[in-house]
C-alpha cells in the first residue's frame, strides 16, 4: 500500500506542481482549475476520470460552470501519498 508522504516530501512535490497547494485542516492537496467554459471543464473531467480509473486512484471534485475544484488524498492511507502526486501531475498535463 502507498505510504503517506512526510511533510517535507509533500512540500517538495508541491514545488513541482503548479497551482496545487495544501488543503487546510486535512492531509490532502488541492487545486482549482478554471477553464474557458463548461465544455472545456467537463472535457477535462472526462479525460481525468478515465486516467483516474486506469490508476485506480480517484479524485474528490466539484464542478461549477467552468471551474473544477479538485482535492486529492489517499483514503486507504489517510493522507497524501505518491499516488496523489502522480494524479495531480496527470491532471495538470490534461489541463495543458
Ligand atoms: N482513490 C483514492 N483517492 N484513495 C484511495 O485510497 C483509493 C482510491 N483506493 N480509489 C482505491 C480506489 C481502492 O478502494 C480500490 C479497492 O483499489
Automatic annotation (TrEMBL):
Q: Name one GO biological process term.
A: tetrahydrobiopterin biosynthetic process
A GO MF label: 4-alpha-hydroxytetrahydrobiopterin dehydratase activity
Pfam families in the cross-refs = Pterin_4a (PF01329)
Task: Give the UniProt keywords, A-Z.
Answer: Lyase
CDD domains reported in the protein's UniProt record: PCD_DCoH_subfamily_b
Q: Gene3D superfamilies of this UniProt entry?
A: Transcriptional coactivator/pterin dehydratase (3.30.1360.20)
Record-linked NCBIfam families: PRK00823.1-3 (NF002018)
Question: Which protein, by its recorded name, is this?
Answer: Putative pterin-4-alpha-carbinolamine dehydratase
Originating organism: Bradyrhizobium ottawaense
Amino acid at each position: 500500500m502507498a505510504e503517506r508522504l512526510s511533510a517535507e516530501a509533500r512540500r517538495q512535490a508541491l514545488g513541482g506542481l503548479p497551482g496545487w497547494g495544501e488543503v487546510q485542516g486535512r492531509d490532502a492537496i488541492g487545486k482549482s482549475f478554471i477553464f474557458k467554459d463548461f465544455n472545456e471543464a467537463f472535457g477535462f473531467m472526462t479525460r481525468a476520470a478515465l486516467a483516474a480509473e486506469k490508476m485506480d486512484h480517484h479524485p474528490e471534485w466539484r464542478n461549477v460552470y467552468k471551474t473544477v475544484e479538485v482535492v486529492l488524498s489517499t483514503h486507504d492511507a489517510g493522507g497524501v501519498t505518491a499516488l496523489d502526486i502522480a494524479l495531480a501531475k496527470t491532471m495538470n498535463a490534461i489541463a495543458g
